[in-house]
Amino acid sequence: MRPWAAGTLKAVFFVFASLCAWYSGYLLAELVPDVPLSSAVYSIRSVGEKPVLRAPAPKRQKCDHWSPCPPNTYAYRLLSGGGRDKLAKICFEDEMLIGEKSGNVARGINIAVVNYVTGKVIATRYFDMFEGDNSDPMTAFIQSAPSKSLLFMVTHDDGSSRLKEDAKKAIEALGSKEIRNVRFRSSWVFLAAKGFELPAGIEREKINHSDNAKNRYSGWPAEIQVEGCIPKGPS
Predict the structure, then answer these.
(1) Distance from the first to the final alpha carbon of the chain
(2) Residue 164 backbone phi and psi in degrees, to 5
(3) Which of 106, 102, 82, 103 has its CA nearest to residue 92?
(4) CA 142 – CA 8 distance, rounded (Å)
(5) Distance CA 206, CA 153 (A)
(6) Crossing angle of helices 135-144/165-173, nearest 10°?
(7) 154 to each of 52, 147, 174, 218, how far by Cα in Å?
(8) pLDDT tens digit sequence for 88-100
(9) 136: closest CA among 159, 162, 118, 175?
């Protein structure tokens, strides 16, 4: 073969190879999705790596419990007020019976009454214990709760200054061990049953006193809470 013929053949082969390479690149660009180069590089680097197993986000439980209540029980959570702006809350079966969003929480003792058999709310009230004469109306409210009722009580700010003896006796009759220890701005929460007994072991009552040396907030102790699961009664 003559030298010029061999050179011509090489040139044709080079042009053909270049066209094939260009066309292959064109097809590849059409088939590969439009993603950032960094993502593509990361994907290439990830080939052969062990997959990272991510735990699913925890499921939210009723009343923000860490774990779900057993079947045939009521979930509850009582939270006292803390400081001037952290208002008290009463949650029952994931319904905020008393709280800021409900618009029915205030200074003093906040009370919710629930029908134990049906789980339905009967009434909610708050009673200012710093100003006004609200101890007697609160006593009447507590005593008017029907049998087979759950009563939830939480303080916000002061729950003791105008609390009278009759009110203390009414709350003691429901099983409170701390009502006589409530002082100015004490944080106090209490779960009571009227007309039946709650099972032993259910968290029912807590108290935390104002102490200038230990207070979390200026002039106020830290908020406290109790929570748990109440076995349902026969319908």
Answers:
(1) 106
(2) -90, 170
(3) 102
(4) 108
(5) 11
(6) 20
(7) 46, 21, 15, 20
(8) 999 999 999 999 9
(9) 162
- The stretches of 32-101 forming alpha helices (DSSP H) are 37-46
Least confident of 152-156, 177-181, 231-235: 231-235
Closest CA to 143 of 117, 99, 174, 118: 174
Q: Tokens representing 145?
A: 């709760």
User: What would the pLDDT profile of 99-144 be if each residue is shown by its tens digit?
Assistant: 998 889 999 999 999 999 999 999 999 999 999 999 999 999 999 9
Tokens linked to 128: 């200012």
Measured CA to CA, the distance from residue 178 to residue 182 in angstroms comes to 7
**Tokens 């073969």 label which residue?**
1
- Please list, in sequence order, all residues whose beta carbon lies within 8 angstroms of the beta carbon of residue 100, skipping any fewer than 6 positions away: 87, 89
Joined tokens for residue 227: 């929570």
